Amino acid sequence: MKKSDFYYDLPKELIAQHPLKERDSSRLMVLDKNTGEIRHRVFADIKDMLREGDCLVINETRVLPARLIGERKDTGTRVEILLLSRKDANTWESIVYPGKKARPGHRIVFGGGRLEAVIKDIVNEGNRIVEFIYDGIFEEILDELGQMPLPPYITEKLEDKNRYQTVYAKNDGSAAAPTAGLHFTDGLLAEIESKGVNIARLTLHVGLGTFRPVKEENILEHKMHSEYYIIDEENAELINRTRQNGGRITAVGTTSTRTLESVADENGFIRPGSGYTDIFIYPGYKFRAIDSLITNFHLPESTLIMLVSALAGRDNVLAAYRAAVENRYRFFSFGDAMFITELDRE
């Protein structure tokens, strides 16, 4: 299977640069995973398409404002640090740019000295181990000085940092938002729950590898990034009870999907636990845990478009993406949504 099998043409102006004023006013393309039939709705209509006894699975990860812009203490040279993963209380593996300005021993200051970083080591792929020095609580300082690590295709400034968080974001640790969840409001979730739809919660901390392009033409040679997940016993039981009672499992986003498929047994029942997953889902994969998926529109030739193609079929997905372009849908993180399911016959 080739990377180029998942290419589509996307006009640059369809890449959404800003979130809409109202989260649930995004457009929603509904795609029948079996037939390829398409319907056009708005996101708030998702409440009408979920049934009593179904289970909606959301990812409660919270994005860290992990992009810090400072200057070398000795030269004043501008340096940017992007936090990737925490090693201990004060030490992080990070991407530092420009790398040649950040060698072991170099010190970078932020916020006029409110925060200081010392480059301790250079590790795989040129990442740096960075130790931070500060007075106070690191998370509070990061909230004050840090910026959201927006994807590279978003080139305009985000005015409200909360718009790159889901309304249910709870557990710090992501370098990117689980963007399918950005469309939900507290009110919409309350309406869904009042309808008798179960809402299960898990956490998968999204890494920057989610934006890493597939470089190999043979996609089987692609190495997936690893991400930390946790799902507790209560939420695993809620999902399993839904399945036993004949309800559908709808994952919100590819992150929830990857977590559920990583912890499901061969019969689709969820085992609680935590750990790291590097599962790579592409056409030919047999889904065990989910029935439906709410997701955004993904980059050409990405692992994410491969995942949705595994659920709905490559031809159906590419036809839906062509329809989205023709109908001027908004693409990627701040764009419109897709609900991949089995449509009721009207």
Could you give the topology of this structure?
Blueprint: E1 27-32, E2 38-42, H1 46-49, E3 55-59, E4 61-63, E5 67-72, E6 78-88, E7 91-97, E8 107-110, E9 115-122, E10 128-134, H2 138-145, E11 171-174, H3 186-194, E12 198-204, E13 227-231, H4 233-244, E14 249-252, H5 253-263, E15 273-277, E16 292-296, H6 303-312, H7 314-326, E17 337-341
Parallel strand pairs: 1-17, 3-12, 3-14, 4-11, 14-16
Antiparallel strand pairs: 1-2, 5-6, 5-8, 6-7, 7-10, 8-9, 9-10, 12-13, 13-15, 16-17
Tell me what the structure shows.
The strands form 3 sheets. Strands 2-1-17-16-14-3-12-13-15 form a 9-stranded mixed β-sheet. The chain has a 6-stranded antiparallel barrel with strand order 5-6-7-10-9-8. The mean pLDDT is about 95. It has 7 helices and 17 strands. The protein starts with about 25 loop residues before the first strand and ends in a 5-residue tail after the last strand. The protein has 2 domains: about 5-65 and about 160-340, QueA-like (3-Layer(aba) Sandwich); about 65-145, Thrombin, subunit H (Beta Barrel), CATH 2.40.10.240. It is α/β, with parallel strands linked by helices and about 350 residues long. A hairpin with a 2-residue loop joins strand 6 and strand 7 (about 90-95).
